[in-house]
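The protein record quoted in full:
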Amino acid sequence: MCTKNALLSHKKSVIITQIMDTTYQQICSARTVQSDKKGFFNEFYLEAKQTCGEKWLQNHFGQLKSNEARILSIFNDPEICDTVLGILENVQPVYKQKDALFSSQRRAQADQYYLLSSSGNKQEHLAQALAFANLAIIRAPAKGVDKQIDSGLSLAMAFRTRAIILLAMGAEGANGAEGAGGMAGTGSLGENALSDLKLAASFGLETQNNVEYYIQLAKAYARRFMDEMARAEISLKIAERFVGGNKAAIEACRQEWSLKKNLKPKLTYESPVLTNGENVDLKGASNLVKLVETKEKGHFIVAQSEVRTGDVILNEKPVAACLLPSFYGGFCCHCLERLVTPVPCLNCSGLAFCSAQCMGEACDTYHRFECQFMDLFIGSGMSILCYIALRIFTQAPSVESALNTAALLYENLCTHEDSRQADDYLQRSLMAGFLMRCLQKAQYFGQRKTEGVNPTAIELKVCTGLLGLLQVLQYNAHEIYQTVNKDDHIFEGSKIIYIGAGLYGTGAYFNHECWPTVARYFVGKNLILTATKPHHPNEVIAENYGPIFTKINLKERQRSLRGRYLFSCNCMACQENWPTLQKLDKQVRLWCPSVNCNNVLQFPKDLAKDVRCARCRKNVSLKESVARLIKVEELYREAAQAMQEQKVHQAIELFKEGINDFFEIAVLPHKDTLIAQLSLMKCLAALNYS
C-alpha cells in the first residue's frame, strides 16, 4: 500500500520531469533559430526581450493570432520597435573580398610544389600544389579588377596553373595512381583540366599563338575518356601551326597518348529511378505510395500497392537546400557535391562551386542577393534553417512566386502553431526581421526610396512569409549527409557527415518510427528513400527523425521526440519496448503458418512438436518456417561476404532476397535482420558515393 509520502514523492518527480521536458523543448526550439550562442543575433533577441518586458511579451505579443500581426508588432509597437529598428539600421554587407596579391602569392607556391613534384614524392607535392592553386583561384578578382597585379589576369593565370597541375596528376594516374589522395580518376582530372583551360581563356588568357595552351588542351581532351581524341588531335594541329619547326613537344604528347589505351574510364552512377514511375499527385514519389490523412496523425505516406525491399519510393529535389557554412570549403554550395577543383564566385571569396555551370546558376539567382552578407549570416549565429527560409525567397523567379511557395508550405505542413510560446514567436519574428533587412540592403526589392528599415507593404509580406517558413522548417527539414570513405575499402572506415539541410515537400509527409522501413540517402541534393522491408497496401511507410531504437532506449527516445517534435511515438518498437541492438538476443517470433491467420508465435523449444495457435486454434508445425529462416540467415552471410569483397550490387540483391523472405515468415525484432537492413542502407548509400 502506498504511503502519503510516497505519493507526494511520486507527484514531485512527475512535476520535475515535466519541467525538465519543457525546458528541453525550449532549448531544442531555440537551436532551430540560432545554432551558435556566440552569434550577435542572440544579443539582439535578449535586448529586444528586455526592452519590451515580460508583461507586454506575454499579455500582448503572446496573444497575437497571426504571423502578420506579430511582424507588424515588432516594427510598430512602441514597447519594442525602437530597439528593433535601431539595431536593424546597422545591417551592412560583410563578406570575404578578393585579394589579387594573396592570389598571386598562392599561385607562386603552387608553381613551386609543381616543380618539386618532378624530383620525388610526386603525389604529395602535386596535392600541395593543387591546394595552393585552389586558394589562388578562390581569392583572385575578376578580369581587370586589379590591373596592378598580373595585369588584371590573376584569375585566368590561376586557372591555367591548376590545369597544368591536374594534367600532371592525370599522367600520374595513367601510370597506376588514381590521382593525389585518391580524389579522382584520370578521366575526371582531365575533364577538370579542360574546364580550367576554357575558364582561363574566358577570363582573358591569351591563346593566340600560344603553343603551350593548345598542347595542354589536347592533353585534357585526351584524358576525358569521352571519345574526345578527335578534338585532342585538332588542338595539336593548331599548336603545330603556331610552333613552326620545333615539334618535339607535340610528338611527346602523341607518344604519351599511346600509354592510355589500356586505361578504363571512370565509373559513373545515375540517380535511382522510381519504381513504377512517378506519382502525379506526389512530386518525386513512386506510384507505389499514396498520401492519407487521419485526425490523430495528420497527413502521412502509406503503400498504395505491394512494395518490395529495394523499391525506390522517393527521389525528390528540395524546395530549397543549403550547405552548412563549416563545409563551404569542401562542397559545392549549389549542388552539394564534393569539391576537387572549386570554381569561385567572381565577387566574394567565402564559398565555391564545383563547376562553372553551378556557379552561373547560383550567381544568376540566389547568390547575387546573399553574396555580400555571407559573413554577416555566419556572425549572426543563425541556424541552417534560417538560411533555407531565406533561400526560398532568393532563388525564386519573383517575389510573388516566393510568397506563393511560402504560403503553400505554411498551409500544408506541420507548424505546431498552438504549442508555441511567446518567447519562441518573438525570437522567430526578430530573425524574420533581420533576414528581411538583409534583403532590403541587397536590393531584393529593387532600389528603395530610403535607407530606413521601416518595411513597405510588400516587404511586410515577405517578412511574414519568412516567419511562417521558420516555423515550418523546424519540424519538416531534413539533414543532408554524405558518406566519406577514409580508406580504400568502401565500407571499412567510412563515416557519415552532415553537410547541410533541405526542405522536401513530399519527403516531409513521411511519419516517424523508431525503426524506419526505408533507407534514406542523398544523391547531391536529391532525397532518396528506398524500402528496406516489404509493405502491404495501406501499411505505413516510415522514416526516422533521429532517435533510433537500436542505439537509444525507449525513455530517451520519447523525451527526444517530445522535445524536438512535440509528439510521443507509438510505433511497434515503442509499444513492445524493443531492447537496443547491443542487448537484443537472437530469438525470433514466427508468423502462424495457417492461411489467413496473422498471429505471432514464439520460436518453438522442440521443433518435432506442433505448436498451438491461440488465434486460429490450430496445432501447427513451424519446421518449414525455421528451415526458411536458416536459408535467410545464409543469404545474410553471403551478402556480408559480398560487402567485404566490395561487390555492392551483389550484396544489395542478396540482402533484398533475404529480407523479403524473412518478413514472409517472421517479425521484428530479429538481430540478424536488423543488421541486414542496416547493411542494406550502407550499400545503397555507397553505390552513389563510391
Q: What stands out?
A: The first strand starts at residue 289 and ends at 294.
